[in-house]
Amino acid sequence: MNWYFPTPHIETWIIDKSHLDHYQHVNNVAYIAQQEKLAWAHSQALGLSFNDYQKLDRAMVVHEHKVKYLQPCLENDIVLCATWITGCDNRLTLTRDFQYICKKRQSTVYKAQTTFVCTTLSTGKPARMPEVFRDIYGSALIRIEA
């Protein structure tokens, strides 16, 4: 696969009728929902679960999405969904990049970048990342060569 960056976290997404819009293409909100699932799967693979977020009273919440829909996906397409942590200031923000490749076409169909902000789960107010977030997310940060 022609991934944008090395060592992606990859999950497979099989497109079914529930993902389609009236054009019979994958609906734009389905791509975003898949991003959420992928980010959680990656966090869990790194060792952070929602239970950890609750115990720490902290959460990484979406601040901004930048998305590009490059090619439509159709029912029964198999899409390889990848994510990387491409930014982490170890204080407040974390950035993830996403790339989806249609397995049959071997081409990128979707790419996105999401910025997350650390908040207090109980109040929604911005808060510094706890040490475990800094350690786990910081160690997963990939270095992007300019």
- Count of the separate structural domains: 1
Beta content: 35-45%
Portion in helices = 10-25%
Shape descriptor: globular
**Treating each run of at least 4 consecutive H or I residues as one helix, how many helices?**
3
The main sheet comes to:
5 strands, antiparallel
Q: What is the distance, rounded to the nearest whole angstrom, between the alpha carbons of the first and last residues? A: 21 Å
Q: CATH superfamily name?
A: Hotdog Thioesterase
Number of E strands: 5
Q: Which architecture per CATH?
A: Roll
Largest sheet: spatial strand order: 1-3-4-5-2
The CATH class is identified as Alpha Beta
User: What would the CATH topology be?
Assistant: Thiol Ester Dehydrase, Chain A
Give the integer mean of the pLDDT values: 97
Question: What is the gist of this entry?
Answer:
The chain is an alpha+beta fold and 146 residues long. Helix content is 25%, strand content 36%.
Protein model, in words:
Keywords: Hydrolase. The protein is α+β, with helices and mostly antiparallel strands and 146 residues long. The protein has a single domain, classed as Thiol Ester Dehydrase, Chain A (Roll). 25% of the residues lie in helices and 36% in strands. It has three helices and five strands; from the N terminus they run βααββββα. Strands 1-3-4-5-2 form a five-stranded antiparallel β-sheet. The longest helix has 19 residues, at 28-46. It is globular, with a radius of gyration of 16 Å. The two termini are 21 Å apart. The mean pLDDT is 97.
